[in-house]
């Protein structure tokens, strides 16, 4: 019998009624004669609530205690699912990561799964049991509880699928699949039938919350097909995330994303000399501040110039402090803007189609949307715009690249 991994996200287990529905869905897959491994997120809102509590207790809450605290939500939902399955006559039990164990490496809050010990779970599924495994969490070599970054249950599901050599990994969520853009923000967004790992990775990294980026990296490395579908309408077909060669599309652009937590930093009047950019960015990188888009003006007088870059809004205060304390640079003025969003178009089709950049810029110009910074890679173009124009720009780009058809 083949193994199948079923992952349920926060909204899918958000209420007692939803958990009862989830138990029914699991029951259907048992009838299809699969051996099942279930991964669950915390009930929606629970993880956020725990994060807020940690902030109230201390402004510098310890990262290891953060992991112990915020991983607690999954314990509740897993136990409730197992309890319901037992009530329906199935053999089931919950498993926390440390009980399996699921070993992680890397920093607290952002750990990655390294190894999963399979013996106990295999014994359990072979005896007809349905294990309900807590997503998002692991345990490190120091025997401390870790977490995999927000949205990390997706990564748990993919890694379970890898280690157990599962035939399929189904991600049940609150939308019917991956759409051309967030369907909760644009009604005309269209469900994508099949998408490559590469495009999904870009979309997830650039703001499409539906899948956590690391989970897509893991799926791509291990060639695991993912099906994303709704736990609310389970008869509706979802989206298959798979290797490039399985994807046939005539579209130039596959999806559009936007971000809500970027901030722009501008250093005005810095010396235009070799080494200045390195002097600015070295202390930022030492403090683990991720610099994203960068643009440096060419100085008119050959002496001074301005440098603009983006970071995550949560790093803004730290960045201000680091720049102000940096003795290697002289800044005439330091400007910050939190009212920015990075809007991106993603698609492998742009590799072979000329003129995509021009079409994007023209579509935005027609709407009088000013582009502040631009960055590109082989399969994406990102622009930084004022936050107030997010909706307008997505609508214009969706139309320009015929994604509503
Ligand atoms: P879960 O709790 O099931 O993990 P998430 O909230 O993490 O669910 O992800 C699902 C949400 O992702 C959707 O409700 C939707 O608003 C958002 N989303 C953003 N971009 C997209 C997209 N391109 N396609 C589908 N959903 C998207
Ligand atoms: N509960 C965790 C979070 O809210 C993990 C997840 O939902 O995937 O980030
Ligand atoms: Mg999620």
Brief description of this entry?
The protein is an alpha/beta fold. Helix content is 33%, strand content 26%. It has an 8-stranded mixed beta sheet, sandwiched between helices. Strands 13, 14, 15, 16, 17, 18 and 19 form a 7-stranded antiparallel beta sheet that branches.
Q: Can you tag this structure with a few keywords?
A:
binds magnesium ion, binds aspartic acid, binds adenosine-5'-diphosphate, 405 residues, 26% strand, 12 helices, alpha/beta, eight-stranded mixed sheet
Give an overview of the whole structure:
With 405 residues, this protein is an alpha/beta fold. The chain has twelve helices and 19 strands. It has helices spanning 16-31, 46-57, 63-70, 72-87, 119-126, 153-163, 197-205, 213-222, 276-286, 316-325, 356-366, 390-400; strands spanning 3-8, 35-40, 92-95, 102-105, 112-116, 130-134, 137-139, 145-147, 168-173, 194-196, 226-230, 239-242, 255-258, 262-271, 294-296, 304-312, 333-346, 373-377, 380-386. Helix 1 packs across helix 4 (72-87) and helix 7 packs antiparallel against helix 8. Aspartic acid is lined by residues 9-10, 41-42, 47, 73, 135-136, 150-154.
Q: What structural class is derived from the secondary structure elements?
A: alpha/beta
Backbone CA Rg: 23 Å
Distance between the termini: 41 Å
Uncertain spans: none
- Main sheet? 8 strands, mixed
Structure ligands:
adenosine-5'-diphosphate, aspartic acid, magnesium ion
Q: Would you tell me the overall average pLDDT?
A: 95
Structural shape? globular
